[in-house]
Amino acid sequence: MTAVPTASSEALLDFDRAHLWHPYTSMTDPAPTRLVTGAAGVRLTLVDGTEVVDAMSSWWAAIHGYNHPALNAALAAQAADFAHVMFGGLTHEPAIRLAQRLVDLAPAGLEHVFLADSGSVSVEVALKMVLQYQRGVGHPERTRMLTVRGGYHGDTFGCMSVCDPVGGMHSMFADVLPEQVFAPRPPAAEDGVAAWAEAFEAVAAAHAHELAGIIVEPLLQGAGGMHVYPAACLAVMREVADRHGLVLVLDEIATGFGRTGTFFAAEAAGVTPDVMCLGKALTGGYLTLAAVLCTPRIAVGLSHSESGVLMHGPTYMGNPLACAVALAGLDLLADGAWKADVGRIHAALTAGLAPVRHLPGVVDVRTLGAVGVVQLDHPVDVAKATEVAIENGVWLRPFRDLIYTMPPYVSTDEDLARICTAIGAAAGVA
After folding, report:
1. In the record, which positions carry N6-(pyridoxal phosphate)lysine (predicted)?
2. 143 marked as part of a ligand binding site
């Protein structure tokens, strides 16, 4: 047989620009893209041979790095058995074992697991759980969600409705989305908690008759602005939810699996939510998979709604390949070494980004766990900042007025120093 010639990198990129949409980009005026030809450890290899440290963990998912032998082996072993089987009426060992592990790891009381196929879908499922629960316990009039300004929960319609409707990425859809209830954004410092708590409670009390639940990202608001807030705010939300009969949903898609310094961000406040969403790092960046955990009270309550069942069921629910890789990834976290790695990364980012605070145009530098954020007083010139970061051997993906990093946990001190240098260089030109 005659071998099919491989398309040149220029031809591939030309087709990409002409036909392939990328996240939040224009088809008529596409942003530059770079062709990746390999990835190992924390480094991406670009088509011209350039190697860059991935400071983004592939949007916060690849916490173990790339081409990890344990994750590769788990994927190959499961593929040799079967790659997928419908979850309706059938089950399989990887899904069962993963559910067991998640229940064991989650805050006590979260005992039921729904395996979704993306973070956004997990939030959609959580919202359905909340609404069906309220119907099941005799409150069908409770249909709105309470959340806070500055949040981001995904790109599908239910998710967009609980994202910030004014400053968020989905404000253009505000007129066609369900109208939710928004309280002020949590404060950045402890001394602002008391005043914020009073305002949050006032909003909840005013709308309690129509509210079904509360949904927030714990400790760290991600794509809504990388805003960090005190753990005490979570305790306030738990108290308010209990006082008004609301379901508390914590979206741990970005914060789960150690990113903020505890295995789940909720642990920092000693809070157990009624529903918890997980994703991103769950499979170490290998395959898309998410999970929604809830308490028995929520499971029983929603089962009393008129359908009698949770009304959701994705085609790829509980995909065996994804479940097998997720189990292998959890094995890598089982010895607790992640905690020292996250602490080491936090110290390196705190020290390495401190000088950036004094650059012109920088208004804030903040760190939380394995997260480092530089905020500017103007929108980032993404193309220029990206180019400078690559020149410094690092892949960054700034947005809005933020240049930030969420590096893989396996990043070395040398990698972290390079990341900080690249962020400083990017902030200097952006």
Report:
1. 280
2. no
Task: Tell me how many degrees the CA angle 371-361-352 measures, rounded to the nearest 5.
Answer: 35
Catalytic residues: 24, 152, 251, 280
**Which residue is it, tokens 């989305």?**
177
Q: Is 59 annotated as a binding residue?
A: yes
pLDDT single digits (tens) 288-329 = 999 999 999 999 999 999 999 999 999 999 999 999 999 999
What span, in angstroms and rounded, lies between the C-alpha atoms of 385 and 389?
6
Strand stretches in 162-303, DSSP E? 181-183, 211-216, 220-221, 227-228, 247-251, 275-278, 290-294
Gap between the Cα atoms of 346 and 389, Å rounded:
20
Q: Are 221 and 152 in contact (CB under 8 A)?
A: yes
Helix axes 382-391, 413-429, angle to 10 degrees: 140
d(CA 24, CA 30): 10
Does the annotation flag 280 for ligand binding? Answer: yes
Q: Is 120 annotated as a binding residue?
A: yes
Show the tokens assigned to 422. Answer: 């690249």
